[in-house]
Structures are given as structure tokens and as C-alpha cells.
Design brief:
- The protein has 273 residues and is α/β, with parallel strands linked by helices.
- The chain is 45% helix and 19% strand.
- Strands 3-2-1-4-5-7-6 form a seven-stranded mixed sheet, with helices on both faces.
- A hairpin with an 8-residue loop joins strand 6 and strand 7.
- The termini are far apart.
- The N terminus is likely disordered.
């Protein structure tokens, strides 16, 4: 009986450490790490049917349906993050060349829910790897006639070869770097197509503090989250990639968004070439 009681006390102590933001030490940390790996393995096993669907190409069916789900989520996200998006995009016009239109490329434009935050007269280039978003983009374009739309291209963030070097004033992506296959390569492409003095604006969810249960659950649930959120990685620390990229200046702040705990922690800001 004493053994069970002591084990319960240890678990309660670890729970208290995580809730108060303290990092478990020594064997306690090792036990938590082992438990996280074990639980993640269990979830991975439960996701075997989804792994199989992806390997045979059936997951592409979900990608055709995903724009409908994202359209609804984006509407809700904009309502909850309206003030933060307004604050973020307020500086866009500062990167316009005198006497010229602001040329903006949005990577992972999705359903076009960022359009209403862009300054009037802005020339917008849209890019997304999923062509199924085009019908929603057209709807967003008709709702935002103050903008000039140049083109939509089916392209991933890692390969923007159809965009010339140093040809845009601003690059934007929101909730995109969580799902690209290679963040450093995406940032290199962004740096390449930005003109000198241009800026990269971002708003991304990132992994929680390692001393929290949210961090634990993000890793455990990631195998399933990947499929239901169309390749999203809730366990990425995108801040580190931005800090190591070749930008001359980085303005970054942390935000706790009023969202599901898996994607609650955000970073937002801009990086200047």
C-alpha cells in the first residue's frame, strides 16, 4: 500500500511542476520523456489506417474536402484574432516603394481570409499547393475589390521558382510554416524573392513550453493531428528557424491565442531583408 501511495505522490509532484512551469529534474524528467514516447507510439499504432490511406493515395480525397473545413475555421480564427491581425498588418504600407503599388505575395493563401487586412491598391500574388482553394479565393476577391489580384499559382513554400528574385515588397504567411515540409528552405525562398528592404510578415502557432502538459499532449497527439489538420505540425518551434534565417532585422512577439490548446501559443511579427 505504501508503494502505491508514494507513486501517487510522485505523479502529483510531477503534475504540480508542470502546471507551475517548473521543469522536472533527473529521473522525473526521464520518466515523463519515456511516457511521452510510449503514448506517442500508441497513437501512431492507432493511426495505422490513416498511414495506409496516405501511402496508397486515398488521403488526397481529404485534401479536396479540407478547403471547406478551413474556410469555416478561418472565419472563426479571424474573429478571435482580428485585433492581433490588424496590429500585425498595420505596418504593411511602410514597405511600399514611393510612387508604386505595394507588391505582396501570400504563401499558403488558403481561402483568402487575410485579404481584408491588406492596404487598398495592394497588388496581390497568391500561392498555395492545394488547387482546391481557388473557388474560395474568387469569393474573397469579390469581397475585397480594393486590391489588385495578379495571379494564383499552385506552388509550395519550398519551391517558388516561378517568382523572380527580389521581385516583391512583402511576403505573408499565417498558419503555414507549421505544415511546410522544410522551413529553412521556405525561408530561403522568401528571402530570395523579397527585394532588399522588403519584409516577411508571419503569424504562426508554435510548440508549447517543455515544462507544460500542453507540450506533452502536442507530441502525443501529433500523429493524428497531422492527418486531421492537413499536414500541420503542432510540435514545431518556428521561432528558432526565423532567428537563424538571413534577415537583417526580426520583430517577434509571443501571443496566447484563444484557441484549442494544441495551437494556443503563437508568434507574430515581421523580418526585414
Amino acid at each position: 500500500m505504501s508503494i502505491k501511495l508514494s507513486d501517487a505522490i510522485k505523479v502529483d509532484q510531477r503534475h504540480s511542476l508542470l502546471l507551475t512551469g517548473q521543469t522536472p529534474r533527473g529521473s522525473e524528467f526521464a520518466e515523463m520523456a519515456f511516457l511521452m514516447r510510449f503514448c506517442t507510439l500508441v497513437v501512431n499504432v492507432l493511426c495505422l489506417p490513416l498511414h495506409l490511406m496516405e501511402s496508397v493515395g486515398l488521403y488526397q480525397i481529404y485534401k479536396r474536402v479540407f478547403p471547406i473545413l478551413l474556410y469555416r475555421f478561418s472565419k472563426s480564427y479571424n474573429k478571435k484574432m482580428h485585433d492581433k491581425k490588424t496590429e500585425l498588418f498595420r505596418s504593411l504600407s511602410e514597405f511600399k516603394k514611393a510612387g508604386k503599388q505595394l507588391t505582396l505575395l501570400e504563401i499558403g493563401c488558403g481561402t483568402g481570409t487575410n485579404f481584408k487586412y491588406y492596404p487598398p491598391g495592394c497588388r496581390v500574388i497568391c500561392a498555395d499547393p492545394n488547387p482546391s482553394f481557388q473557388s474560395y479565393l474568387k469569393l474573397s476577391m469579390t469581397e475585397n475589390e480594393q486590391l489588385t489580384y495578379e495571379r494564383f499559382m499552385v506552388a509550395s513554400g519550398e519551391d517558388m521558382g516561378s517568382v523572380e528574385d527580389e521581385s516583391v515588397d512583402v511576403v505573408v504567411c499565417t498558419l503555414v510554416l507549421c505544415s511546410v515540409k522544410d522551413i529553412p528552405q521556405t525561408l530561403r525562398e522568401i528571402h530570395r524573392i523579397l527585394r532588399p528592404g522588403g519584409a516577411f510578415f508571419f503569424m504562426e502557432h508554435v510548440v508549447a513550453n517543455p515544462s507544460t502538459w500542453t507540450h506533452f499532449l502536442q507530441h502525443v497527439l501529433q500523429p493524428a493531428w497531422y492527418y486531421f489538420a492537413d499536414g500541420c505540425q503542432a510540435i514545431r518551434d518556428t521561432r528558432k528557424d526565423l532567428e537563424s534565417a538571413w534577415f537583417s532585422d526580426l520583430k517577434l512577439s509571443h501571443v496566447d491565442a484563444p484557441l484549442l490548446f494544441l495551437i494556443k501559443r503563437h508568434i507574430m511579427g515581421y523580418a526585414v531583408k
